[in-house]
Amino acid sequence: MSDPPSVPRGLIPPPSPRVPRSSPLSSDTPSPGLSQLNVLPSVAAENAFRACCGSHRWARRMAAHRPYPTLEALLAAADEAAYDLTSGDLAEALAGEATTPLPDRGSLTVHTALRAAHAAYEAKFGHAFVLALDEGEDGEAGDPGRALDQTLASLRQRLGHDEDEEAVTTAEQLRRTARLRLIRLARSPDRAGSITPGLPRGTEPTSRRYDGRGRWTVPGRA
Known about the structure:
Elements: H1 32-39, H2 42-50, H3 56-64, H4 71-83, H5 87-95, H6 108-125, H7 144-158, H8 163-187, H9 189-194, E1 209-210, E2 216-217
Antiparallel strand pairs: 1-2
Helix pairs in contact: 2-3, 4-8, 6-7
Keywords: Purine metabolism
Protein name: 2-oxo-4-hydroxy-4-carboxy-5-ureidoimidazoline decarboxylase
Domain Oxo-4-hydroxy-4-carboxy-5-ureidoimidazoline decarboxylase: 39-95, 108-182
């Protein structure tokens, strides 16, 4: 029996987030996207996994452990790989993240508050705010108003964290975000076959740079 995976300092793994009921967790037949992901060449598979989590080590491990017979097996492997990430791996993954665009809903007051909170967060912690938003039953985006409320509430709470507390929270949100992206990837053959390396879909490149020593920097900031 293998030893349990290591966990980022101070992180007690919570129960895994709910997977939409339509996901074939216990099916003996892989979904079309998962079947295609299982047979991709190694480099293409690593690129696909890197679009779910920006750590090279995580992506290589996920590609090397193929084939995955079910989505449940894929998500279990992703969790184990995420708990084994070092601080440098997490910094590399964060360097590929950007603030997820929110729906054009809600009042001007809400969006003004969100912009201010995002700016304060990045100024304090030096990286993009990562949050695995709740999704609908079909695995797609949930209610836009709820997404805005959830994001603003989480920003305000996490701005009160110190650096160690936020490092733990961010690691957990990266893990959950990777799970959600994997669910979408496993459902869609197009995403498994044509996904490109680099940033997750729906994000824009940032000017932050990973320094290779467990830190990443923003030009002009000490």
